[in-house]
Amino acid sequence: VNEQGARDAAAWKKPPDEAQDIFEQRSSDLKAVAYRVNISIKGSRGPTGNYAAEIEGTGADIFSSPNLPESIGAIYLTNITSYAATAGGRIPDAAFKLFFDFSKPPLIDGANAPSSPTSNASMLEISGGSDWVSAVKDAVEQTTKLRKNKRYSLHAPMVYDAGLMAIVVPMALYLCWRLSDTVNGLFGTLSTFLVAAAYIYIMFCCLWIYRAVFGYAKWAFPIVELTDTSNASRHRKFLLAILTVIIIPLARDILKNFIL
Fold this sequence. Notes:
5-stranded antiparallel β-sheet; rod-shaped
């Protein structure tokens, strides 16, 4: 942004009736005010969907401000705000908007299908010449590539369905088989309908547990995360404990009955 301001300022024409030193000082002051990156840091969203707190600034020192929200929900950077304030609302020819959305999916999400991708509003918009677009894009990607996590596959579309068909349904059927003696002992002398209903109920319980654990995993491993303020590590340990309790006994039982 500073480089773009210097290029634009070099093209400004001095009015014939203005002294050179006054013009240079005015140009320098205008460039310093108009060509800045405005930063807005917002607290996490509350139950109403609104952000809890917000601070604004134009320098990197805002990230070490004592007034930072305790839990950061979003960071927005742009060079449009300062320029528009000095140009009567006009947007600069070389502009960018960068938004990081650190929100998490709901722990219990009844609004979206489990197979749908996790929504995230993070975005980068750039307008201007090819040199400007490349410079801004490279500056952002140098950081995002360095700090990119490996969680996209968890939040991609149809991942829920793949896990359902490849792992959960076979395990649920195996569980039905393992409980067949118990089910037949309880309901076999009463009604074949109750036996079938018991197996269906076991299947539904397995599917419900899988959906709950899958939603918890997406919540504990968000697609975009501000690690400096994250307290998700304890949730990840708890999730690992849940999976350990569920998977290890089943895997041991399968090995004992079909392989060993």
